[in-house]
Amino acid sequence: MTQARHELAQQTMAYVLAGGRGSRLKEMTDIRAKPAVFFGGKTRIIDFALSNAVNSGIRRIGVATQYKAHSLIRHLQRGWSFFRAERNESLDILPASQQMDEENWYKGTADAVTQNINVLRGYGPKYILVLAGDHIYKQDYSVMIEQHVKTGAKVTVGCIEVPRDEARAFGVMGVDANDKILEFVEKPENPPAMPGDESRALASMGIYVFEAEYLYELLEKDNDDPDSSHDFGNDIIPDIVAQGGAYAHPFGRSCVMSGLEDRPYWRDVGTIDAYWQANIDLTDFKPELDLYTQNWPIWTYSELTPPAKFIHNEEGRRGSATSSMVSGGCIISGSQLHRCLLFTGVRTHSFAELEGVIVLPYADIGRNAKLKNCIVDRGAMIPEGLVVGEDAEADAKRFRRTENGICLITQKMIDKLDG
Fold first, then answer.
1. Is position 187 annotated in a ligand binding site?
2. Do 72 and 79 touch, CB atoms closer than 8 A?
3. Is residue 334 a known part of a binding site?
4. Which tens digit of pLDDT belongs to each residue from 124-161?
5. pTM score, two decimals?
6. Where does residue 405 rank: exposed (0-12), middle (13-18), buried (19+ CB within 10 A)?
7. Read out DSSP for 197-262?
8. Tens of pLDDT along 18-27?
9. What angle do CA 32, 38, 43 make, to 5 degrees?
10. How far apart are CA 339 and CA 368, in angstroms?
11. Residue 208 counted as an annotated binding residue
């Protein structure tokens, strides 16, 4: 990082929007917000945005919470309490309805910042970096902030390239050759194409850079507008585009890659299928996302656990794992795992067979269980002999099964099997 970018990062406060439920993850977000969902064996989804900020040199961070925030707040308190005020560092947890009155839940992404303007002003940052707390990626935000300053933009919007037929799910930008945003439309039927490539479009990552005082003025004006939905994508950004002050920042310019990845990596793991695929992809010989580099660590709360243990060495009862990731505290007792990802403290018992299975922390897989293409929720106790992944009709009656054949198994679903 250059000295200039380092100085810009020090003048910036990151504001992470982490209040969303993530309803497409179904039962996985019944008791936790989407940013608090586990990912990658040890981390939570929000750890990626927070780690990007810290690794980019940004040490003042606010996290706006709302939906079922207890597990998220507990994780932040346990894993992100290393900031020191005497070094001008801070991490503020900002629940909805606390700042303006006792009835206002966050009405939209912009309102989630508006309600905490006094907190932001108290730190006196020159720039505000607004982040979504529910995506998986590695990015040096200081590169984006530097572009914002050099172009004199009113807002700089982080964007990724996506096929045009997939862009209907995003806010999409039409830009000129100098990255100036000419139009910004939410979930359009006919997304504008990238310059020089009719097959692709630029989709918003939900990342914005503003000068702080300018942002406060915008938000206070928006707050007084009864017709506004108080949302960045619907209200704030289109207005700045119309005034000619918005610029795009393509993700490829600031994506952090170790040299092993083939292309910039960004994922919205907001569906059961996408979540399963992104986690299982990590078990590949050459994963698209490299978590093993020390140059850009993903910080998190790390429990004190013993190493994973594999026991029994008999024919048909051998603790083994191939093309898999197994976290600390796991005991693989006479079970066979292939292409699996196990989080902390999982137990698998004799003669169990797992393939394409994500097992969240402290779940227990009973003897003779045979699981394929599943997500086992935290703490779930899989009974002896349970078979999942062989009979689609039976799976759909007992568990949450997607059209692609991925089954989500929770303890409540297990309890109903005996009912």
1. yes
2. no
3. no
4. 999 999 999 999 999 999 999 999 999 999 999 999 99
5. 0.95
6. middle
7. BTTEEEEEEEEEEEEHHHHHHHHHHHHT-TT----IIIIIHHHHHHTT-EEEEEGGGTB---SS-S
8. 988 889 999 9
9. 130
10. 18
11. no
